[in-house]
Amino acid sequence: MASEELRRELGGSFPVANVQALASTYSGDNSGDIPLRFVRPELHSEEVLVDETLQIPTIDMRKLLVDDDDDDDEMGKLHLACKEWGFFQLINHGVAEAVVEKMKADVQEFFKLPLEKKNAYAKQPNAMDGYGQNLVVSEDQKLDWADMLFLQTLPTPERKKRFWPEEPTSFRETLDKYSSELVKVFNCLLKLMAKNLVVNPEQFTNMFEDVRQTVTINYYPPCVQTSKVIGLTPHSDFGALTLLVQVNEVQGLQIKRNDKWILVRPLPGAFIVNIGDIIEIMSNGEYKSIEHRVVVNPKKERIAIATFHTPSAGTIVGPLPELIKDNGTAIYKSVSREEYFKFVLSKKYEGKSRIDLMKLKN
After folding, report:
1. 3 state SS of 350
2. Burial of 324 by CB count in 10 Å (0-12 exposed, 13-18 middle, 19+ buried)?
3. Furthest-apart CA pair in the chain: how many Å?
4. How far is CA 206 from the centre of its chain?
5. Which end of the chain offers a freer environment for a tag, N or C, measured as fewer CB atoms within 10 Å?
């Protein structure tokens, strides 16, 4: 299988210490020094905008699907959100609250398990699925203050069930349902974006007919020395669209806008949606992927579920021909999905450096 060969070639990550276990030794006011690989004070030197009136746009899916003037208004809001923000909160998305809440509950139960039980699903050498960290490409790379459970959910035949937790007992069934519901939202958003970009919706969605969907569950332990660590290194997502759910009430996600960091405040029941590098490339820069990061809380854990979507195997990742036929100017290279994966997954998270390397030098 081509994707399996790709995983072996890319490998997973160098093994690293479990952060949840490590954090338990740094929980008091007299905490010792944080291990050097986690010390990232330079990432906290930039200004964090604290204007609470400034928030990412909110898009109402129900309005997008109604054929009236509100539809046009909401479509315009969606277009501007993708073009100017790269992030938005999606409400009335059609996924039952019970599905999302059950996913949250099972995730919380998993991270309450003893370390030896969680390690039963630990990443193996030269693999990405499982419990640990991904994209650690060297033994001296700086590390995030987080653990993750990474699982491929679609296409179904490519699932690695050996890494799908059996505790809690409902986890696998819950994730299966969650995955199938979120891909419906993804497909709907894709068609709406195609309409806004004035490209053939069928041609666009055909590129994702056998969409590759992965779910990353991130656990960010508390750390009293918040100025020394980062939960998630600043980066843009390399996929097409990401749908994120915050599991508990602890905030920490920040996006970069006008060289300042803005805290995202999740709305109850909303998905936080962000444009990935692939959509920026396919839209030839019309829509923008946005740099984002996660900061940790000094007292409380933060848990989030991110669901990523990338094109079908064999798809060419490049500007859509319809968007460059008028002026003939492509901003980005066109490569196969497999070449694109090989390129981006061999690089560490570092701002938008990966998509910058995909730009043509005109």
Report:
1. strand
2. middle
3. 64
4. 22
5. C
12 touches 127 (CB < 8 A):
yes
- pLDDT, one tens digit per residue, over 137-178 is 677 788 999 999 999 999 999 999 999 999 999 999 999 999
Task: Give the residue from 175, 140, 180 showing the smallest Cα distance to 161.
Answer: 175
Which residues make Cβ contacts (< 8 Å) with residue 104, sequence separation at least 6?
245, 247, 248, 305
Listed residue (341, 349, 354, 355) closest to 280, CA to CA: 355
Four-CA torsion 255, 186, 318, 275, nearest 10 degrees: -10
CA gap 282, 285 in Å, rounded: 8
**Identity (one letter) of the amino acid at 108?**
Q
Amino acid residing at 95? V
Residue 113 — pLDDT band, cuts 50, 70, 90? Answer: very high
Nearest alpha carbon to residue 143 among 348, 300, 345: 348
Residues 6+ away with beta carbon under 8 Å from 356:
none
Write down the pTM of the prediction.
Answer: 0.93
Q: What is the pLDDT of residues 301-357, one digit of tens each?
A: 999 999 999 999 999 999 999 998 766 799 999 999 999 998 887 766 677 878 888
Q: How far apart are CA 248 and CA 209, in angstroms?
A: 33
